[in-house]
Design goal:
Elements lengths: L1 E7 L3 H12 L5 E8 L2 H10 L4 E4 L8 H8 L7 E6 L5 H6 L4 E4 L4 H22 L6 E6 L2 E6 L5 E5 L2 E5 L4 E4 L3 H7 L4 E5 L2 E4 L3 E9 L3 E8 L5 E4 L4 H9 L1
Parallel strand pairs: 1-2, 1-3, 3-4, 4-5
Antiparallel strand pairs: 6-7, 8-9, 8-12, 9-10, 11-12, 13-14, 14-15
Amino acid sequence: MSLKVLIVDDEPLARARLRTLLGDCSAPAALVDGEAANATQAVEALRRQHFDLALLDIHMPGADGLTLAQTLRTLPNPPAVVFVTAHAEHAVQAFELEAADYLTKPVRLERLQIALQKVERTIQSRQGAKVDEPEEVLIIQDRGRTERVPLSQVLYFKAELKYVTVRTVTKSYILDGSLSELEDRYRASFLRIHRNALIARRAVRALEKHFDVDEGEGWAVRLNGIDELLAVSRRQLAAVREVIAS
């Protein structure tokens, strides 16, 4: 497997060295899919997309790496964490936060490769544990009947006045609830593209120029399995482009 990695370090040279070392790793391989100079940037990146691993420096301006690691544990699908720091005295606290490993600078390639192997084993263990878990479903009241709709079949949620439309390839449903609640619950799988819509990350097919009668010239996303176009706000345009590129 190839691990998707987020590097978090306030020093550009330190990030560049890690990026070079990760490029030399092969068992498993690693792809640097994002960089952040502080905790705020790191959380923003992780809310936009999933990473298998976050390499965290400890001493940074603002929230430090240990505080950031605590925040990451609250995410729906958190990455594994490996601390990379010049200070060895925080090792005990790091492992109390269930870090996969703790590397001291300057990092050696062999030691980094061992850390990646630990992360790989952790991910494989999690995947094995999920095999027997029941698939998550939405319970929807539909014309006098109660229906179980697998979340994996949902393409988008769209707010319509006082209810939410749930769209699959074959059918639309009406769900009581708010879009904000759905976004908080399914952030790892669904992306906000507009004030009134969440889309399944896995279903994104294309981003297209689009003219809307109310909003004028703009962008829209096309999903696999349906012809309908969904408007993308300017604020969310970069996040949609990242999903397509990942």
